[in-house]
Amino acid sequence: MKYDIIVIGSGPGGYVAAIRASQLGKKTAIVERAEAGGVCLNWGCIPTKALLKSAQVYTYCKNAAHYGLELAGEVRPDLEKIVARSRGVAETMSKGVAFLLKKNNIDLIQGFGRLKGDGRVNVDGTEYEADHIILATGARPREMSFMPIDGKHVISSREALTLTELPETMIVVGTGAIGSEFASLYASLGTKVTVIEYLPRMLPLEDEEVSKTMERSFRKLRATVLTSTTVKSVKVNADGKCEVEIEGKKGTEILTADVVLSAVGIKSNIERIGLEELGIRVERDKIVVDRFYRTDAQGVYAIGDIVGGPALAHVASAEAICCVEAICGLNPSPVDYSTVPSCVFTTPEVASVGLTEQQAREQGLAYKVGRFPFTASGKATAAGDRDGFVKLIFGEDDKLLGAHLVGANVTEMIAEPTLAKALGATAHRIARTIHAHPTMNEGVMEASEAAMGAAIHL
User: Fold this and answer.
1) Hey, which residues are catalytic here?
2) What are phi and psi of 107, to 5 degrees?
3) Could you report the per-residue pLDDT of 249-265, keeping only the tens digit for each?
4) Residues 164, 257: one domain?
5) How far apart are CA 161 and CA 193, in angstroms?
6) pTM assigned to the model
7) What is the pLDDT of residues 13-42, one digit of tens each?
8) In this structure, is residue 113 part of a structural domain?
């Protein structure tokens, strides 16, 4: 079978690439070895958020009296039912992607795809041809030699999605988005959680003020936060408990837990797909591409977690559209990686875009900061979610350099600062844009006013 474009991988990069190609009149196929939608829809972003929603509802129920409500009986988490709901949500979304592929006349080829050269793709013994091949094979949890994953005692994010019972104790190694979200989830449900971070602060890629706020929030959940701490080894003892040897501020210690979650990053799925045979360069686990995602091999492209950009679903989708439109001769603008929003769905949530204050200092930029605490927000106070703030960083030209938000629903709020940064909006323009009252989004306006020295409610 001959196609114009074959996409290998059906995650947020792959299925978006396939649909855009079909929209532009290309005969398209997508190769997928597992469920439609890839890891994000089936074993990542979506089911994780479903679990976190259950934890949020449980927290609201426990605090019902704060809202003037009385609940009869005890509210208890049923992990089996929570997980079943999460899997149902993932299945619904996966079916939705399959429907979109069919609606757009895209052939879904089940199996493992491998490049064979000359525009050929081998899928479990059957060969297909295409003028253009887009690799979107995604990534998987990284495994460390000192912390081998057995799926029962030492688990990855995949197993953390489907535990059958709540562990009494859990150690989470790594405090990026994945580790922090699962730590927040299980701590909210009642597990005694300890998080371990090698770097001096948790969520190390976020603004320093954000990290400090989140450490306080985790301690409110009665989670233990150990930063500047190295995991030396993880062993399972005769009682089935995990013994974790760490080296930190108190020297060497042995911690014990029922389960250890390894959340130390991801590894690109680039093995056995034919890169070496086609001479496609790989550097530090990433395929080398140009700004339109062309590899060294003629007619072969790569997008998403397997190339050197932020490993985020929405980045993969943006790269997919840029890549396909370049193939089709539409001359798209390259993806602007300086304006990529990042979200962490903990409690409270974290959202950011652009430069942190530390990065602005390191680059020698003149800047000013506007802050607005949610303790001063009418909507946050009414909702009972006053933790957090909006922090905006503006450059010498008064344009937005970065935005850093902590609080309830800030992952929904980050779109405004992202658009403002993309359009080069100034503090004055944001501050003078009328924001609806009462909303959390007023915090963006208020922080802009603070940067101008014109704060009204502070």
Assistant:
1) 437
2) -75, 125
3) 899 999 999 999 999 99
4) yes
5) 16
6) 0.95
7) 999 999 999 999 999 999 999 999 999 999
8) yes
